[in-house]
Amino acid sequence: MRHIYLDYNATTPIAPSVQEAMLPFLAEHYGDPSSSHALGRACLEALEDARGRVAGLLGCEDEEVVFTSGGTEANNLALKGVMLNGGAVGDGHLVISALEHPAVTEPARYLERLGFDVTVVRGNVDGVVEPDDVAAALRPDTRLVSIMHANDVIGTVQPLRRIAKICRARGVLLHTDAVQSVGKIRAAVDELDVDLLSLSAHKFYGPKGVGALYVRHGVPLESLLHGAGNEGGMRAGTENVPHIVAMGRAASLTAKSLDQAAERLTMLREKLLKRLRETLGEQLTVNGCRAERLPNTLSVNFPRVSGQALLARIPELCASPGECHGDHGGTSGALSAIGLPAQVAAGTVRLCVGWYTSEEQVDRAASLLIAAWEDLISR
Fold it and tell me: By C-alpha distance, which of 72, 61, 101, 78 is closest to 200?
């Protein structure tokens, strides 16, 4: 069976040149980058080259990039690192949004259990966090605001620059989980005006198990991992050189093709929607359709059916239902946050195109979805 992969927000395949760049560091270049001998120095050079490539993608200084095991660790380091730095445990206030990925909401809940106050700002019906709501949530003891750049379920892009202006005026740090946006749209840190930004290589054609946290100069963080002074003292442990090298190559590929890829992905997304609506019409609703969205993401609600049941009838199609964070059931946080009724959210399917999606695959996917929907509603 030849699969049609429309789940690029979950993960992406490794680009061939990324895999090629990674392989030597799984074999002959096996040194510890902290070692002073020739093998170690070669790995250190490769490590720092990759750091520069990631910094180039984000528009920041090389030393502002801290490599991690992925987006989840980067988010944990940002939230816990700020809130646990200095002062008494439980002394301070954190603001997040209801649209966040569990990699932000769960660290926030952990901090709440430690005694920190956490305020959750809801999104509007379009899946956008209103800057005025963030401003209203701030308190004199607010230390950090964490608002994702783009939502993983519905693709809406948040007005971070406007939120940053509010945070700057109040002396509050701003973090963004940009795991879904990096590689799809511009995520230059100075344009967004953020203090911390999380990213993950496997979302932009790199391998799983490696990510990074951008930390603006002067932002104090408490390390989560204590040991040797790797990553500027931010993250102890020998660096994952093969994956970091691969992440650097993926960052360079992405930076070169960003605008062209975004245009093509938008075309594919709109073609898919047009094909679906040729049969379903306006009864197929689109989440976040009035807001700016990621160019590759289409979150649609199929009427009178379950999204999970729909996808179960199409084994060759790889896509996700509305709940994308596990098999525990229920409505995703993003769909609840925009006030989508449970019966509508039950029919949500997230369709995400990517670099290797063809127009023929889009046509085939639409035909399969329509046929499965028609079969389900006829029963």
Answer: 72
Tokens representing 2 are: 């030849």
Residue 275 falls in which region: left (phi positive, over 0), alpha (psi -120 to 50) or beta: alpha
Catalytic site residue 60?
no
Of 212, 289, 287, 297, nearest in space to 262 by CA:
297
Query: What tokens were used for 328?
Result: 């525990």
- Among the listed residues 43, 167, 324, 352, the single catalytic one is 324
Of 304, 295, 233, the C-alpha closest to 259 is 295
* Per-residue pLDDT tens digits of the chain, which is 379 residues long: 799 999 999 999 999 999 999 999 999 999 999 999 999 999 999 999 999 999 999 999 999 999 999 999 999 999 999 999 987 888 999 999 999 999 999 999 999 999 999 999 999 999 999 999 999 999 999 999 999 999 999 999 999 999 999 999 999 999 999 999 999 999 999 999 999 999 999 999 999 999 999 999 999 999 999 999 899 999 999 999 999 999 999 999 999 999 999 999 999 999 999 999 999 999 999 999 999 999 999 999 999 999 999 999 999 999 999 866 544 444 468 999 999 999 999 999 999 999 999 999 999 999 999 999 999 999 7
Strand-pair partners of 321: 349
- Torsion angle, alpha carbons of 365, 371, 376, 379, to 10: -170
Residue 235, C-beta contacts closer than 8 angstroms, at least 6 positions apart: 66, 67, 68, 77, 223, 224, 225
Query: Which tokens belong to 170?
Result: 């109040």
263 burial (CB, 10 Å; 0-12 / 13-18 / 19+) is exposed
Q: Which residues pair with 351 in a beta bridge?
A: 298
Number of neighbouring beta carbons within 10 Å of residue 68:
26
Dihedral (Cα; 159, 162, 166, 172), 10-degree rounding: 50
